[in-house]
Amino acid sequence: MLPTRSFQLRNHVRGFLIYAAGDTAAALLLHQFSWLRLLGMALVGGLLYSTEVPAYFRWLDARVPSRTNGSQLRKTSRAAMSLLYFNPLWIARHYVFLGLFGGAAESISLALLPIAGRSFLLNAPVSLAANYYIQNRVATNRRFVASAVFSGIMAVSYALSAAWL
User: Fold this and answer.
1) Which of the residues 56, 102, 128, 130 could staple to 37 if both were Cys, CB 3.0 to 4.6 A apart?
2) Transmembrane segments in this chain: where (predicted)?
3) What would the DSSP string read from start to end of 53-108?
């Protein structure tokens, strides 16, 4: 069971803005910008991600407490568990949202799973390093923001990779 926490308006506003900004930058790079996509991804970031990501981080804190002088195994475990949370199924769900709000609902199929899997594996080293930093160096009340900013940067990275490869 996840530890409960009261409504955090600040996280919802930040999720709304940060996820919208990251996805908009990626959409502009790919010439796929639409107002519906901007609004949809802002709502996903501000309502869904801003609720579930902090809840997972609280759950992770309860299972693997962070300590300033914690062991390297504990620190690595926190990063690995965070990386596993943003797994291929999470990525595929994000692609579904992009398809729904980006006007490409026809692209939503089980074919997204291998794409999400490849995306997860290709980005695992960078994601592990970023999650290590977020889980072990960022203050608890700032982890969601740091994670959302990293997600926004990754969205731009995915857009550039698609354009260049």
Assistant:
1) 102
2) 12-30, 36-57, 83-105, 111-132, 144-164
3) HHHHHHHHHHHS---TT--HHHHHHHHHHHHHHT-HHHHHHHHHHHHHHTT-GGG-
Indicate the pTM of the whole model.
0.85
- Residues 134, 1: contact at Cβ < 8 Å? no
pLDDT at 6: 54
- pLDDT tens string 131-157: 999 999 999 889 999 999 999 898 888
Assigned domain for 4 exists: no
The C-alpha atoms of residue 57 and residue 150 are separated, in whole angstroms, by: 15
Which structural domain range is residue 17 located in? 9-164
Are 60 and 82 contacting, i.e. CB atoms less than 8 angstroms apart? yes
For residue 134, is it within any domain?
Answer: yes
